[in-house]
Design a protein that fits this description.
The chain has 411 residues and is mainly beta. The chain is 5% helix and 45% strand. The protein contains three helices and 29 strands. The longest helix is centred in the middle third of the chain and has 14 residues. This is MSP domain-containing protein. It comes from Polarella glacialis (Dinoflagellate).
């Protein structure tokens, strides 16, 4: 508590049954209120398998009367699997902000203590192996190869340097970590003094506990990237789910609904996953020219799984020839049977790597023919132009009565 403490500690020297001497030592102290306070000082992240993700948040409050600058010291992602946002933030007096902590264990994180196997490159055909040194020649000292146990101890030492502890349970196959995230706090906007020393910095800690469960359900691929898809077109990709814990029986699969505005749809229903792999078909149909991304969340009675979905809607533009967009059909002699006509070619080009549909619609019509075909006909009036291809449209002009000019506008 922020109170003043003034105590005396009395010491007595006893010889036999008599008190020979007594003396006291004064203790004086002043409690100081905390500059920064947390809604929680210990965060327990959800237990998840490798490849999944869990998020928690903590509210930080500035209790002082001056603005404070905070800098979160986060261990390397491959060492801890943690991400914090924001890392650097300024808090005004009595202001509160939310700090988000994300835990996403990867294979590099789970295999941190395992020494990687170095492959010795074999000499290619035509190349000779390195010559064996002759006696008397100087030999270069070979680097001592560390054992797997020494490699493990080095990695554990690096974990401790980052303020963490790591241990594994061989019976359950779980991986546990406990971290103390340091947060540096200093007054904002205070310049260095005359000697160049920066303002006093205090350090507070936030505890984070994580746990990685054995993988029960394996998704391949781990991420669905649809790439660039033409707006309005659909593209399908499969996700194959494999049950790695057959001893636990069927995995009853459940899916969380995807956001409607992200244009991703799972086409088939979920079913229990047994010995045979199960395939989910995901459709991506972008409506706008933008980047879409969300997460497909799956769960069973034993595990949770997340598959990131990503795609980009694009809208390439078709080009036409003639470039000015005007086609002169010339003059045609009118006959009662409307047998005379003339034709011209309209070339539609697609220079993009995506197939594009087209549809020619009349905006301003020419003089209508109420008893027969219209003066202008286009064949084909709709279709699809292949990627990096072209399509030829035949324009036919057949007048149905004498007239100076027939004009029609088509989009």
């Amino acid at each position: 508590a922020a109170t003043e403490m003034d105590y005396n500690i009395v010491f007595k020297v006893i010889t036999g049954d008599l008190c020979v001497r007594d003396f006291s030592i004064g203790c004086l102290g002043q409690g100081v209120s905390r500059i920064i306070s947390f809604s929680e000082t210990q965060v327990d992240m959800a237990s998840i398998p490798c490849g999944a993700m869990s998020k928690e948040s903590v509210v930080i409050t500035n209790n002082s009367k001056v603005a404070q600058l905070l800098n979160v010291l986060v261990p390397l992602s491959k060492v801890s699997g943690l991400r914090v946002s924001p890392i650097c933030v300024q808090l005004e007096p009595h202001e509160s902000k939310r700090l988000q902590i994300e835990f996403r264990p990867t294979k590099d994180f789970t295999n941190l203590l395992k020494k990687p196997v170095e492959e010795i490159p074999e000499p290619a055909e035509g190349e000779q192996a390195a010559p064996t040194p002759v006696d008397g020649e100087e030999q270069k000292p070979e680097e001592q190869e560390i054992s797997p146990e020494e490699f493990k101890n080095q990695q554990l030492a690096s974990v401790r340097e980052y303020g963490g502890r790591r241990w594994e349970d061989p019976e359950t196959g779980t991986l546990h970590c406990s971290w103390r995230l340091g947060i540096c706090v200093r007054p904002a906007g205070v310049p260095n003094d005359v000697n160049g020393k920066s303002p006093k910095t205090s350090l507070v800690y936030l505890g984070v506990n994580t746990c990685v469960l054995p993988t029960v359900l394996l998704a391949e691929p781990a991420q669905l990237d649809f790439g660039e898809v033409t707006a309005g077109q659909r593209h399908l990709l499969p996700v194959t789910l494999t049950n790695l814990a057959l001893q636990d029986g069927l995995q009853d699969l459940h899916m969380e609904a995807l956001p409607e505005n992200q244009c991703f749809t799972v086409l088939n229903a979920a079913r229990p996953v047994g010995g045979k792999p199960f395939q989910l078909m995901v459709e991506f149909k972008p409506q706008l020219v933008q980047i879409y991304q969300c997460t497909l969340s799956l769960r069973t009675q034993n595990t949770r799984l997340q598959v990131p979905l990503r795609g980009k809607g694009v809208r390439p533009v078709l080009k036409i020839e003639p470039e000015n967009g005007v086609i002169h059909m010339g003059s045609v002699v009118f006959g009662k049977g409307c047998k005379d006509y003339t034709t011209a070619k309209l070339e539609i080009k697609n220079e993009s790597p995506f197939e594009l549909p087209y549809k020619l619609e009349t905006i301003i019509r020419a003089d209508p023919n109420h008893t027969g075909p219209p003066p202008f006909t286009l064949t084909p009036s709709s279709g699809t132009v292949e990627a990096n291809g072209s399509k030829t449209v035949t324009v036919t002009f057949r007048p149905h009565r004498p007239m100076a000019v027939f004009r029609e506008k088509i989009l």
